[in-house]
Specification:
686 residues, alpha+beta, Lipoxygenase-1, 4 domains, six-stranded antiparallel β-sheet
Length: 686
């Protein structure tokens, strides 16, 4: 089996034996347990010794030493003057003399001793499958990804693309247009045009323009001949074999991007093959504007809310009303108008309903500045309204309207989900797990959860955040303390010489790590609260300081849950709770946060659309929205809404939502969903 599939299945707590039998099974099982705290619950008889090296690569057993080899004990013994001197000498040698050949270490650090590992680490349960069974499991995950309507993350897409190539797979369904577009563009597979509509072709061009030419402006095209041929083939498909009964409706939708279409058809020198295509070309090049939104805005300008809603629903569907809910409700003059809007909503789009429920359940902000988050090309974009934006904005909702919308959306969601599943068993910890609603800009790996998911931090434990890298000189791990008011304190390479303490300890700035470098932060929660009582949250970030992107190097990040008095081993694989690969086409990533009041770690895992070389140059307050998302809706509450009955015994359930139950403990034909099974959840939501 290809390594990309084995890596992916490992993130699902599955090991694959494609090597045959091994006479050293007992010794191998003991080694895996001893080195990584991994317990094999099923498939012990087909364990293979090569799995030790495989797990070492993914969890991190051979990790480069940090700047201070005795971190954290040795660092705490050094004065701020010595720490600063160490740093300045190191910078002078590496940057001043350009000596990046070897990773530098401290000049001031005294000798230190390591003690035997005595920390109590959480056991991670895995299963081992033979190659045939692993391929079936993989095919199931791939089918789930094709059933989900959400855009995929970069790791998920690579698995999909490799699976199609390796197994010559042709899916009968592809619910996500983003996925169909990317597969069409990158694999030159016209097959995926069947999952698109005519208006989607401009998105195909945008995707192609970016991925092949690093150009985000679809109005400035300079496509090669082979790219023109591909786009022309898709257009011809829409007007030929792919022509549908909705082609006239599709043509009307194209008026919304009429200028783009006109420029594209000119750039392609497009020659229509039939009468309908000729009509389309004439309309896109003409002066008339028959777009649905043009008619919608015409009715809105007259104050005809009910008529405007009808135009929108007829031309774009009920989902478009949900997407324009703020605009519509803010223009309602009375309860009759508001009722007309809400009564027209027949959409069963679970994803939109969930997103709106979170939106209308969040803290009411009235006329305060809003922050918008969206992903494009697997990277997070953030825009905060300026004062001028707020003044120009007309779509203000009152607190009462917001509450009514929240209650309406919640009722609608329960109505849509009711009895979608059969009998369901749900593990109680799932109330802390978020739903995977926006994971496009996420990295993949062991222990990765959906944004906003919470992991309780046990008493007498500390969090050790880590990052390590190769093929780049300098990556920086940083932490930011945020108060609920939005004020913050930076903990990074440029501030930690004066801030090392029992509360927070930093391993030093590794600036010559081309062949291998690493950085760490230790957070002792109890001590941190004493030192910084005004801080509620801590947010960890990674950024590439060298003039490269994550995709140009190798970079791992994650965290360990360690005893406050640890063994002295800086990187201890047994204690690794998560380790993931950051390989986005950017230089900045948000990793995770800590809620100091609730003593829990909160997942962020977002690759930001940024080329910032230094952390802390932009606002982070928008991240606080993820810290309360599970209070609004979570995995447990979602499956409760979708169940026909909640049962206490997993053997009685049709769907089991649990991280502690294994396949052998459920009835035949039942579905087992873990907190990290994004694919299965999105398939159900879709």
């Amino acid at each position: 089996m290809e390594i990309i599939f084995k890596d992916y299945l490992f993130s699902k707590h599955i090991l694959v034996n494609d090597k045959g039998t091994d006479e050293n099974a007992f010794e191998t099982l003991f080694s895996i347990a001893n080195l990584f705290n991994i317990r094999i619950k099923e498939g012990q008889g087909i364990v293979h010794r090569e799995m030790i090296e495989f797990i070492s690569r993914l969890v991190g057993e051979k990790v480069p030493e940090p700047f201070y080899k005795g971190f954290p004990a040795s660092v705490k013994k050094l004065s701020s003057d010595k720490l600063l001197f160490d740093q300045m000498v190191h910078y002078t040698v590496t940057y001043g003399f350009g000596n990046f050949s070897e990773a530098g270490h401290s000049l001031m650090e005294e000798n230190f001793e390591r003690i035997a590992f005595k920390e109590k680490a959480e056991i991670k349960d895995f299963v081992i499958l033979n190659e045939t069974d692993a391929e079936k499991k993989l095919a199931g995950f791939v089918d789930d990804m094709f059933c989900g309507t959400r855009p995929l993350s970069e790791p998920q897409f690579k698995v999909i693309s490799s699976f199609l190539r390796e197994y010559s797979h042709r899916p009968s369904k592809c619910a996500s247009k983003n996925l169909a577009i990317r597969l069409l563009v990158e694999n030159r597979a016209l097959y995926f045009a069947r999952f698109l509509q005519l208006p989607d072709i401009t998105k195909v061009v945008e995707d192609l323009n970016y991925r092949l030419y690093d150009n985000t402006d679809v109005k400035k095209l300079n496509l090669k001949n082979q790219d023109r041929k591909l786009i022309i083939s898709v257009i011809d498909y829409m007007f030929g074999k792919g022509i549908s009964k909705d082609i006239d409706r599709d043509i009307i939708s194209c008026f919304e991007r009429k200028a783009v279409w006109s420029g594209l058809l000119h750039h392609l020198h497009y020659k229509p093959k039939n009468a309908k295509a000729s009509e389309f070309v004439r309309l896109m090049r003409g002066n008339e504007n028959n777009s649905v939104y043009s008619g919608f805005e015409s009715e809105m300008s007259k104050g005809n809310i009910a008529e405007a809603v009808e135009v929108l629903k007829k031309g774009k569907g009920s989902g478009s009303i949900l997407r324009n809910l703020d605009y519509l409700i803010s223009r309602c003059r009375n309860e009759e108008d508001e009722k007309a809007v809400l009564d027209s909503i027949s959409s069963s789009n679970v994803i939109i309903l969930l997103q709106l429920l979170i939106k209308y359940s969040s803290k009411y902000r009235g006329k305060e500045s809003r922050t918008f988050k969206f992903t494009r090309f697997e990277r997070l974009k953030v825009y905060s309204e300026t004062e001028e934006d707020v003044v120009r904005r007309k779509s203000f909702l009152t607190e009462e309207q917001t509450k009514r919308l929240r209650d309406f959306i919640h009722r609608k969601l329960k109505e849509v989900l009711k009895n979608r599943l059969g009998k369901v068993y749900i593990e109680s910890k799932m109330r802390n797990m978020a739903l995977p609603l926006q994971e496009t800009a996420s990295s993949g790996g062991l222990g990765v959860l959906a944004k906003g998911s919470r992991i309780p931090i046990p008493d007498f434990k500390k969090i050790r955040a880590f990052t390590y890298w190769e093929k780049v000189n300098d990556i920086d791990l940083s932490a930011f303390g945020l108060a609920e008011s939005g004020t913050r304190i930076e903990f990074s390479w440029r501030t930690m010489a004066d801030n090392q303490s029992e509360a927070i300890t930093y391993s030093g700035d590794q600036t010559s790590g081309f062949k291998g470098g690493s950085e760490y932060f230790d957070i002792n929660l109890d001590e941190f609260k004493k030192w910084y009582p005004q801080i509620r949250y801590i947010i960890f970030c990674d950024n590439v300081f060298s003039p490269l992107r994550f995709s140009d190097c190798f970079c791992k990040a994650g965290y360990m849950i360690r005893d406050n008095e640890d063994s002295g081993m800086v990187f201890e694989p047994k204690t690794v709770a998560s380790s993931f690969l950051i390989n986005s086409d950017s230089t900045f990533a948000y990793l995770f946060g800590i809620d100091l009041e609730m003593n829990s770690l909160i997942w962020l895992n977002m690759n930001k659309d940024s080329y910032e070389a230094v952390a802390g140059e932009s606002s982070m307050t928008f991240l606080l929205e993820y810290f309360s998302v599970t209070d609004i809706v979570n995995v447990k509450s979602f499956f409760e809404m979708a169940a026909s009955e909640i049962v206490d015994d997993p053997k009685q359930a049709d769907v089991v939502v649990s991280d502690s139950v294994s396949e052998s403990e459920i009835k035949e034909g039942a579905s087992l969903i873990h907190s990290y099974d994004f694919e299965k959840m999105t398939a159900i939501m879709g």
